[in-house]
Amino acid sequence: MTVRPSDDLTAAFARLGGEEDERVWSDLWDDLCHQGSVYEDSFLALPYLAAIVTGRAPGAPQDAVLMAGLIASAADDAYSARYAAEINALLPVARHLLDAATEDRPTFVYLLQCVLAFEGERVWSAGRLEGLFEGEYEVDCPRCEASLFIAFGDHGTFAAAGDYLSAHPVRAALLPADPAALDALPARLHRMATEAGHEELARAVTYLFGRATCPDCAGDFAVSEQVEESH
């Protein structure tokens, strides 16, 4: 199955609602958002995805929200206006699913990005929050341009040059942000993760929006600014 504007999207989505739904969603992802990419054709799926979440078509609402959230994260003003009704229908469902996502950290982050995308946020909704559950980001030092790993997971909290899993990595400490001093968006992310019981994600937010020192040149920088530059 290869979906293009000239093809019958109605028939493609009509395959949902049976025992092969997992395969159907896999096909839809491959055709409409291959490897996480969003194309001009991808936006044609938004009416079908909105129909699923509003109960007018078969399919799993969470699968529909996740696909629609990725698509919406790439919308410009024109697409946002064209599909405003669909996005408005998707937003409350995404919020409801997010409120219920108290067990799985990746699912919580994916849904959080969807909520941000439907609300019109175009920076952190576009995959940049996924490092929160992965426990690391790869960035460039703004001073010496060294490639660095920002780690705050099972291996510790540090900035490292080169392979941070090597026997003798070159590391520097991270300085997490004070939750009380976070700007509006990161403060909201921290609060939502905390209220959902995702303490590790809330902690990760303080490192993402904190500061790091380059172990190569000792330059100090805001981690979030380099994540924006690198993604």
What do you see in this structure?
This protein has 231 residues and is of the alpha+beta class. The protein folds into two domains: 111 residues; 96 residues, no CATH class. A four-stranded antiparallel β-sheet has the order 1-2-3-4. The longest helix is centred in the middle third of the chain and has 17 residues. The protein is elongated. The two termini are 30 Å apart. The N terminus is likely disordered.
State the main characteristics:
three-stranded antiparallel beta sheet; 11 helices; 231 residues; alpha+beta; disordered N terminus
Strand order across the largest sheet:
1-2-3-4
Number of extended strands = 7
Strand content: 5-15%
Q: Helix content range of the residues, please?
A: 40-55%
| Uncertain spans | 1-6
Write the element-wise H/E pattern from the N-terminal end onward.
HHHHHHHHEEEEEHHEEH
Give the biggest sheet.
4 strands, antiparallel
- Return the average pLDDT rounded to an integer: 94
